[in-house]
Amino acid sequence: MTEAASPERLLFASTTQSFLEKEASLGRLRELHGAGTAFEADWWRRAAELGWTSLLVPEELGGGSVSGDGVADLALVAELAGKTVAPGPLHPVSTVLAGLVEAPENHEDTIESLVSGEVVGSWAVYEPGRPWAPLDAAVTATPTGSGFRIDGVKDRVEAGAESAVLLVVARSGGVVRQFLVPTNASGVRVEPQRSIDMVKTYARVRFDGVEVDGSAAVGSAEQTSDTIARQSQIAMILQCAEIVGILETVLDFTIQWGFDRHSFGRPLGSYQALKHKYADLKIWFEACRATTNCAVAEVASRSPAAEMAASIAKSYVGEHAPGMLQDCTQLHGGIGVTWEHDLHLFLRRVTLYRSMFGTPEEHNLHVYALTEQLESVS
Amino acid sequence: MTETASAPTETTESVEEFAARARAWLAENMPSIDPINPPEHDRGEEAPWLRARELQTKLYEGGFAGICFPKEYGGLGLPIAYQKAFDNESRCYELPIILNTPTFTICAATILDTGSEEQKHQHISAVLRGDEVLVQLLSEPSGGSDLAGVITRADRKGDRWVINGAKTWSTSAFAADYGLMLARTDWDVPKHEGLTMFLVPIDSPGITLRRIKQVNGSVEFCEEFFDNLELGDDAVVGEVNGGWQVASRQLYHERRAVGGGSEFASGIGAEGKSDVPIDYVALLQATGQADSERAREIAGRALVHRAVREQLIDHVYHGVLDGSLPPAAGSIIRVTHADTHHLEFDSVLALSASSGVVDVGDGLIRYGERYLSRQTAALGGGTTEIARNIIGERVLGFPREYAADRGVPFNQVKRNKS
């Protein structure tokens, strides 16, 4: 578990953990998959009641966190959710809230309904055929007399089909802005996209002359790129924290397998070739945890180093985690590639996150560019 | 045995106040340097060692030596946060960096754990004053990883010990005053039980010293031959036949030090130009690849791994301190040190392309030369294979590797074919 020093934090963690164990088990995940359901709305409302959606939101807007460090608390929820690859819109809702709280004016009601869990929202940031480039929008928001007209297509919108509201990145008069758009607005068409995860679904969303009020805009043009950077960082640390939870669980049962499984009269873990593989898994796991902790701390404190730290963590965790899951599959032998074994449930989620919100390769380029900038000013 | 050798004492000075005092003192007293282009401290030469002693004496007199060593032996007895603050303040000043390893981080740390009160008072304060340099005399020509299989012998003659044998891979022994030397004192018991650690004056009659030349031309490492070297009982560190316990502490401190996780190191600068972290931005500009996405991605990945290595050192250090990781987790740092070096050396070889292998006048051939010594990072301070065994066995708890010499009196153990 991530730092969980205070008694309030420990209580929050244990409540969250027992809720997840009871209501989001791996068996439940398979049931949801079988039923073709991403998550149940009522389940999400109860998760919200535990405080998951209030962590990034200031108290005056109906939020709050037990420890006073909402970002770290949220990362803790993500890590615990990773232990059972829980379903649910934690990432899209958190990412939208992270944006709205930067400029809550006119959006207090939406914030309240997202915090209560009554409503699900998602960030419409990706566009068809384009890599991760959150500031590079082709969707347009054209000023009308009373507001804006939105045109274009977004895709890879998590839980798009379950969302009542989308935070849409669009170009308006040469600058990038964000707008809150209800999915039942006239001209919005949502088409589901499947993912390699058991339950996580995405959507392509077409905006065909969608009219919104001027009040749909979130924040000023000047602050939008900072807000988008903040949302991106929240998305990335949630992915990393959830992967750390996944890795911890998978490593635990794979190490146990190394003690229990015998070949030629010896436990698997007694063979040096496998022992060394296990050692590497342990090294990479601790490194994933270390870099994730650093990124969470930098993002939580809004440090100038947050952008770099988030990219470093996303690159490192994204580079290593899928391969680590494949190594665990190899250590399990043939059982590891069966549908019945749970390994693939974890592998699916980790592989999904590797490539969403920037691949390791894209973040390597970003880390290089940030380093270049730092050197040119020094 | 304590896992952290330094017990922090009470202080009323905050880390920030300490840092401010260090900042003022450094500016007043220590020579400033350009950390990008630091003075060469070639461990194979004599002069850098004399210089290091001089600088260490200054630190001691200024009250900034041995920040994490206990007060009673001449240190300050402060927690690691103070050392880190000092490291941060001292980046742009010349410090006796080459005294860190092995003198402070391994030898003095081990004497602190296992030495007698006399040895602690004499040697820890002497190294902190800049009066002594210490070295490890562990590896032997007969084998590296199997340290407990050493065959240098110490025989009892009256009230004296008489040493015969050979040691190797001791870093800069020519510049040292004392060495921690592991010898066999009982051949009739299993290998770990018949060893004793001695603190040997390097200039003793009976020691012949020879330099080892490495692939990169370095001559910092030495080999020592012992011919009837005589020592008294005061040279024994720990118990007679209890040498393995002492050596284990050395190995523990060494694994932490090699990865960069020791609180006893002071100053974090490079030892010379070849030790400065690779500046990828400058390299890409110099090679006309500043706009090459392929080159930028390779460099970015190396920067990511470099940063994570630093984050991991801190994470493991605190994990061992708070008990969430066992002390053997120091080997995690040790392996990562090698893996990160490999990635950096491989990356810079790729980025410097043919300029790394033919001297076209741009100086990049140094990266090709550095690549030739790449494996030293995976060998020095114990091989990465042994480190992975340690993680598998002592961190994860898997069964120990089979050893044909376990429980067998050492004089019956099979040794190298000559």
Mean pLDDT of chain B: 93
Strand count of chain A: 9
Largest sheet of chain B: 4 strands, mixed
CATH A-level architecture of the largest domain in chain A: Up-down Bundle
Class inferred from helices and paired strands of chain A: alpha+beta
- H and E string of chain A: HHHHHHEEEEEEEHEEHHHH
Rg of chain B, alpha carbons: 22 Å
What is the CATH third-level topology name of the largest domain in chain B? Butyryl-CoA Dehydrogenase, subunit A, domain 3
Distance between the termini of chain B: 39 Å
- Identify the most extensive interface between protein chains: A-B, 39 and 41 residues
* Strand percentage of chain B: 5-15%
Shape of chain B: globular
- What is the CATH architecture descriptor of the largest domain in chain B? Up-down Bundle
Roughly how much helix do the residues of chain A carry, as a percent range? 40-55%
- Please give the CATH class of the largest domain in chain B: Mainly Alpha
Q: What's the arrangement of secondary structure elements?
A:
The complex is a heterodimer of chains A (378) and B (418).
Chain A (H helix, E strand, L loop, with lengths): L6 H17 L2 H10 L5 H9 L20 H14 L6 H11 L7 H9 L4 E4 L15 E4 L3 E8 L10 E8 L2 E8 L5 E7 L6 E13 L7 H40 L1 E2 L2 E2 L4 H29 L5 H27 L10 H13 L4 H18 L1
Parallel strand pairs in A: 1-4
Antiparallel strand pairs in A: 2-3, 3-7, 4-5, 6-7, 8-9
Chain B lengths: L14 H15 L17 H16 L17 H10 L10 H15 L2 H13 L4 E4 L15 E5 L2 E12 L6 E7 L10 E7 L5 E5 L9 E11 L4 E2 L5 H17 L20 H7 L6 H30 L7 H23 L12 H8 L3 H4 L4 H12 L23
Parallel strand pairs in B: 1-4
Antiparallel strand pairs in B: 2-3, 3-7, 4-5, 5-8, 6-7
Helix pairs in contact in B: 1-3, 4-5, 4-6, 6-9, 8-9, 9-10, 9-12
